[in-house]
Amino acid sequence: MYDIAIIGAGTAGGSAAVFAAKAGKKTIVIDSGKSMTKRALILNHYGIEEIAGPELIEIGQKQAANFGAEIVQDTVVNVTKTENGLKVEGESGTYEAKHVILATGALATLAEKIGVNTKDGTEPRIKTIVDVGLDGKTNIDGIWAAGTVAGVSVHTIITAGDGAKVAINVISELNGERYVDHDVLKN
Ligand SMILES: Cc1cc2nc3c(=O)[nH]c(=O)nc-3n(C[C@H](O)[C@H](O)[C@H](O)COP(=O)(O)OP(=O)(O)OC[C@H]3O[C@@H](n4cnc5c(N)ncnc54)[C@H](O)[C@@H]3O)c2cc1C
């Protein structure tokens, strides 16, 4: 049983995975390899002068894996409730988790299929988004959403920050107290 299963390993899902795995939560990231970020040349990401989208994604996934996140290539087709949590069904495997974060980018089809409430998008070319609260919670207990699919502005630094924000909220819920991740410079 994973603490957190993240569906989508773009900037939102990847950054959620970094925070979740670094906090010691058993984390799996399931991705179908269709990140829109793979087409981007990014010149506006704070702290990075220039980076190609595929490289940003690759570094982020490596960072998450270094903290212990499992990253698997699969397309998730269903998420259902079980007695203990949630069952995530992929085309190639099944994964059980206490919490699920939907970070599926421009694709809201999975959210619609599993009964998560959606609404019209407001960003250019993003037709449908998940209806989430400020904390990233959907209408289904244990299912959260972050990034473009949650209606966040379609920019890497914003979607990455939103993935981190939602992961911090999930970690806080698992820990039963507000979570802060601060590392300190050594002299
Ligand atoms: C051409 C182009 C240029 C861009 N240029 C810039 C730029 O210069 N600066 C900038 O800030 N932003 C830019 N962006 C926007 C940026 O890429 C996005 O805002 C942001 O990174 C999206 O992050 P995300 O994690 O929400 O979605 P994505 O990066 O799209 O990731 C979503 C992931 O979810 C996976 N997924 C979806 N459904 C499933 C499923 N059922 N099962 C498993 N996995 C699934 C997909 O395969 C994908 O990998 C650009 C976008 C495009 C298309």
From TrEMBL:
Entry-linked Gene3D superfamilies: FAD/NAD(P)-binding domain (3.50.50.60)
Pfam families: Pyr_redox_2 (PF07992)
Xref: InterPro entries: FAD/NAD-bd_sf, FAD/NAD-binding_dom, Ferredoxin-NADP_redctase_2
Cofactor: FAD
Domain of life: Bacteria
Assembly, per entry: Homodimer.
SUPFAM superfamilies membership: FAD/NAD(P)-binding domain
Span of the signal peptide: none
UniProt protein name: FAD/NAD(P)-binding domain-containing protein
Record's keyword terms, sorted: Flavoprotein, Oxidoreductase
Domain FAD/NAD(P)-binding residue range list: 2-120
Lineage: Bacteria, Bacillati, Bacillota, Bacilli, Bacillales
